Amino acid sequence: MEPLTLSRIQFAVTTVYHFFFVPLTMGLAILIALMETLYVRSGDEQYKRMAQFWGKLFLINFAMGVVTGLVQEFQFGLNWSNFSRFVGDVFGAVLAIETLLAFFLESTFLGVWFFGWEKLSKRAHLATIWAVVIGSQLSGLIILVANSFMQQPMAYVIRNGRAEMTDFLALATNPHVFYQYSHVFFSGLTTAAFFVLGISAYHLRKNWDNDFFQRSFRIGLLCALISSPMSGITGHSQGVHKLFTQPMKMAAAEALWETENPASFSVVSIIDEKNQRDVFAIRLPGVLSWLYFFRFEGEVPGIKNLQEEFVKQYGAGNYVPPVVLTYWSFRLMVAAGLAMVGLAGLGVLLLILKRLARAAWFLGLLVPAILLPYLANTTGWLMTEMGRQPWVVYGVMKTEQAVSPTLTTEAVLFSLITFTLLYGVLMIVDVYLLAKFARQGPKA
After folding, report:
1. DSSP assigned state of 275
2. How many structural domains are present in the chain?
3. Would residue 292 count as lying in a domain?
4. Is residue 406, in this structure, part of any structural domain at all?
């Protein structure tokens, strides 16, 4: 394998590892803040214990997120120096704001929150956890501003072979930011909701009369009921937006080889990517057009037609992303999302009918269902990043142009193996600590 391929695999590995922790950090901080708000308003000590227990799990997750995020920063300079040189004038200000404002805000107040339970007044202490929420959301938003430049570049001019920012406000209000951030926001809440649901269900199967986990369960279930369908709605809105900004990605997500009007939706396709055809496919006529335009008509461009257009626009080259990976990543994401919506709805129904206490089978399902949002988050990012290929900055810079010119295969292979093993150990430690404290439950 050449350095480019190995560098792409390495960045994919480190990004996927890091993104295991980000959504839970963004979502769980909100639920903890809500629990402590209930404590301050009602004076009920149970809510205080809930905030402290889930806060302990939050801290473990946050620490792992910090460690894994640092490696990504180093890779920009080591593996992708051409990319860093090209976008440095755009990303420099954005990443500096994320670090100096959002991350410092989040981490500083998290420390104050953790150590300040008996040292601050109730309201002052509550303010610290809401500051953590603001910091985590700002951090995610600012990172997505940078990523949105890669997805839909704007507010820049190229001088001396480098992209220079021309308008920070325009960069920050990139339309792609709204679609992407709203989807990540609700995905984070969904991740936190199923995290709380799964751990609560584990304890409730043993003892349904556990008031602590009954309350946690209801908060998680209410959050899941709202956030899981909203995650799907915002994700669909993002897909509609990308039909016009990245049509090749959406064509690959449907394995749509030829332009169609009305366009059919692929239920399942066995894809021959080399020959650009379907070996077997079940397609629903007109449904894809309805999903995009809310009517059973409307043109959706196909992969082959877009390839011809891009050759005319950008010059000779292959502009087709990995179709099989994009197609199945999209379907796994949707399947996981629908499963979470179904579980949330069923949980609310059982709760209303007062049958949840007898539904041990359902509580048992919720424990492995903790993995569902992680599956959706991971496959969603794979589709987002792999479906953009061959571009690292869409329409401006190809991935092959972004790699560091002096890399050797041996060096990248060594770092890839090292990072993978190191991250594997960190993941084992993280899961062990989370499982250990989750099983122990709250202490007086």
Report:
1. T
2. 1
3. no
4. yes
Which is nearest to 240 in space by CA: 193, 196, 182, 294? 294
pTM (2 decimals)?
Answer: 0.92
> Which single residue is written with the structure tokens 């990004």?
15
Residue 206's φ and ψ, nearest 5 degrees, are -80, -40
Sign of the torsion formed by the C-alpha atoms of 93, 94, 99 and 100? positive
Q: Provide the domain limits for residue 60.
A: 3-246+322-440
**Nearest in space to 266 (alpha carbons), one of 319, 336, 330, 320:** 330
pLDDT 10s per residue in the chain (444 long)? 788 899 898 888 888 888 888 899 999 999 999 999 999 999 999 999 999 999 999 999 888 888 887 777 778 888 889 999 999 899 888 888 888 888 888 899 999 999 999 899 999 999 999 999 999 999 999 999 999 999 999 999 999 889 999 999 999 999 999 999 999 999 999 999 999 999 999 999 988 888 999 999 999 999 999 999 999 999 999 999 999 999 999 999 999 999 999 999 999 999 999 899 989 999 999 999 999 999 999 999 999 999 999 999 999 999 999 999 999 999 999 999 999 999 999 999 999 998 988 889 999 999 999 999 999 999 999 999 999 999 999 999 999 999 998 888 998 899 889 888 888 888 899 889 999 999 888 875
- Specify if 313 maps to a domain: no
Q: Would residue 289 count as lying in a domain?
A: no
| Amino acid found at 69 | G
